C-alpha cells in the first residue's frame, strides 16, 4: 500500500486489536450506498482517513478520494511528494482533486540555493497537474507573483481551468497576475488579498469584468478602486475587508447591478470627510436603486451614506467589542442611514450608555417599514444599563409594523453576571410589557450568553400572552422571518 507522505499521511501502525475490530466491521461499512459513504467520509479527520485507509484496499480507495479532493501544500518537501504521487502513473488521481491551496513556502528553492528563490522544477510539475485537473473548482495561491515565476506554463495552466473554475483566491497580485487574469474569461468568483497601495483593484477586475459575479477584497492597508473603464454588470456580491473608507461612486459605477454588500474591518468612528463626499454624490445617475443585503462595520456602512432601499441591514461589528461608536455624531449618521435605507430587517450591536434610549426613539421615528429588529447589547455594568435602557424603550416601537424582536446581552469577561437572574427578569418583567406595547409583535427572542429562548405571542380569550417555543421551532421561525 502506498504512503501519502506529501500530506504527512504516512500510514501509522495500528494496535492489533483495533485493526481486527476495524476489519470485522468494514464489510458492513462498505455495503452502504456510495452517496451515504461519501457523506460520512467528508466528516472524518485526516487521522481518521489514514486509519480507515490502512484496513483494506477497498477502504484505501474510498479514503484516497476524500484525501485528494482538497489539498494544501505548505512547504517544498510536501509539494515534491505530492507531485510524485499525483504524476506517478495512476491516470485517475488528478481528476479527483477539487480544491488546491498553494501556500507561500510551497515552491521555495532547495536549501543552500543561492541563485533562485523559487524552485522552477516543482513549478513545472505543478503546471503538469493543473493542466490535467479537469474537476478543480477552487484554487488558492498565496504570493501569486512568486508562483507564476516558478514556470512559464504556470499562468496558462491556471487560466486553462476556466470557465469551470468556481473560485480563484490570490494574494499580493501585480503585473503577472493581470496577464494571467486576461486569459481567464469565464471566471465567476475572485478573491484579491493584499493588493499593493500603488495598485488599483480595478486593474485586476477588468480582465474578467464580463463574467465576474462575486468579488472579495481583503486588505490590511489602503487600496485604490478608481478605474473608469471597469464595469462588471454581472457582479451581485462584494465583500470588502479593510479598515479604510472608500467613495461610493467608484463602487456604483463599477458594479451597477450589485445586490449584496459586505463591509468588514476595524473602524472606530464614521469618517465625516468621506461621508460628506458620499452624500454629495447621492443623486448621481449611476446610483444604486435597491440592495438586498448590506452587512458589516457600522462606522464604515454609515460613512458610505447609502441612499437606496436596503431590505436587510446588519451592522454587527465583528471586530469591535464596543458595538456602535458612542459619539453623538456617529449616532446621527447611524439614524440617517436607517432613514435613507428604510430596512425591513435591522441588526446592530450597541455599547449601552445614557445615549441609548434616545437613539432607539429616533430609530423608531425613521424606520417606518421595520418588521425585524435584532440588537446585541454590550454592557460593561453587569447588565444594569441594559435593563434600565429596556425599561425606557418598552413603548418606543408601538407605532411600527414590528413582528419579530430579538435582544442579546453580552458583558466583558471581567463582569460577573447571574445569567439566570437576568434572563428571568427579562422574561417575567419585560416581555409582557412588550407584547402589550407593540400590537404587531408576534415573536420575541432572548439570548443572555448561552441562555437562549424564543417566545410566540398568542391571544387566548382575546388577551395577548406569550408561550415558549422549542429551540428548533424558534430557529426555523427566525430564519423564515429574516428571509420573508
Automatic annotation (TrEMBL):
- The superkingdom listed in its UniProt entry is Eukaryota
Pfam families given in the database record: F-box
Q: Where is the F-box domain?
A: 29-62
Q: What is this protein called?
A: F-box domain-containing protein
Amino acid at each position: 500500500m502506498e504512503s501519502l507522505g506529501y500530506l504527512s499521511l504516512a500510514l501509522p501502525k495500528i494496535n492489533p486489536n483495533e485493526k481486527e475490530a476495524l476489519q470485522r466491521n468494514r464489510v458492513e461499512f462498505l455495503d452502504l450506498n456510495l452517496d451515504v459513504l461519501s457523506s460520512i467520509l467528508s466528516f472524518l479527520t485526516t487521522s481518521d482517513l489514514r486509519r480507515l485507509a490502512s484496513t483494506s484496499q477497498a477502504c484505501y480507495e474510498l479514503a484516497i478520494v476524500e484525501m485528494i479532493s482538497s489539498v494544501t501544500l505548505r512547504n517544498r518537501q510536501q509539494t515534491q511528494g505530492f507531485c510524485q504521487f499525483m504524476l506517478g502513473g495512476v491516470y485517475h488521481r488528478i481528476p479527483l482533486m477539487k480544491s488546491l491551496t498553494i501556500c507561500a513556502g510551497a515552491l521555495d528553492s532547495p536549501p543552500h540555493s543561492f541563485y533562485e528563490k523559487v524552485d522552477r522544477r516543482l513549478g513545472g510539475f505543478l503546471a503538469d497537474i493543473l493542466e490535467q485537473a479537469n474537476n478543480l473548482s477552487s484554487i488558492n495561491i498565496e504570493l501569486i507573483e512568486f508562483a507564476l515565476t516558478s514556470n512559464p506554463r504556470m499562468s496558462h495552466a491556471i487560466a486553462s481551468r476556466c470557465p469551470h473554475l468556481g473560485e480563484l483566491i490570490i494574494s499580493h497580485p501585480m503585473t503577472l497576475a493581470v496577464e494571467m487574469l486576461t486569459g481567464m474569461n469565464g471566471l465567476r468568483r475572485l478573491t484579491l488579498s493584499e493588493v499593493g497601495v500603488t495598485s488599483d483593484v480595478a486593474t485586476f477586475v477588468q480582465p474578467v469584468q464580463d463574467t465576474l459575479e462575486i468579488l472579495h477584497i481583503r486588505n490590511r492597508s489602503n487600496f485604490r478602486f478608481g478605474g473608469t473603464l471597469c464595469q462588471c454588470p454581472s457582479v451581485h456580491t462584494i465583500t470588502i475587508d479593510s479598515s479604510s473608507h472608500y467613495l461610493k461612486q467608484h463602487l456604483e459605477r463599477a458594479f451597477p447591478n450589485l445586490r449584496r454588500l459586505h463591509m468588514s474591518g476595524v473602524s472606530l468612528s464614521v469618517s465625516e470627510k468621506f461621508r460628506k463626499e458620499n452624500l454629495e454624490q447621492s443623486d448621481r445617475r449611476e446610483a444604486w436603486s435597491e440592495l438586498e443585503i448590506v452587512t458589516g462595520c457600522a462606522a464604515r456602512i454609515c460613512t458610505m451614506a447609502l441612499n437606496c432601499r436596503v431590505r436587510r441591514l446588519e451592522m454587527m461589528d465583528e471586530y469591535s467589542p464596543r458595538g456602535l461608536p458612542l459619539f453623538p455624531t456617529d449616532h446621527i449618521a447611524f439614524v440617517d442611514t436607517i432613514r435613507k435605507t428604510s430596512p425591513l430587517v435591522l441588526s446592530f450591536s450597541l455599547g449601552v450608555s445614557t445615549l441609548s434610549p434616545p437613539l432607539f426613539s429616533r430609530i423608531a421615528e425613521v424606520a417606518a417599514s421595520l418588521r425585524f429588529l435584532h440588537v446585541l447589547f454590550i454592557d460593561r455594568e453587569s447588565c444594569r444599563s441594559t435593563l434600565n435602557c429596556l425599561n425606557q424603550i418598552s413603548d418606543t416601537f408601538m407605532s411600527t409594523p414590528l413582528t419579530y424582536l430579538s435582544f442579546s446581552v453580552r458583558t466583558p469577561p471581567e463582569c460577573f453576571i447571574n445569567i439566570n437572574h437576568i434572563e428571568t427578569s427579562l422574561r417575567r418583567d419585560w416581555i409582557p410589557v412588550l407584547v402589550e406595547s407593540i400590537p404587531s409583535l408576534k415573536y420575541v427572542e432572548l439570548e443572555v450568553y448561552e441562555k437562549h429562548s424564543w417566545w410566540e405571542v398568542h391571544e387566548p380569550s382575546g388577551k395577548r400572552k406569550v408561550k415558549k417555543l422549542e429551540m428548533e421551532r424558534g430557529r426555523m421561525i427566525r430564519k423564515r422571518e429574516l428571509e420573508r
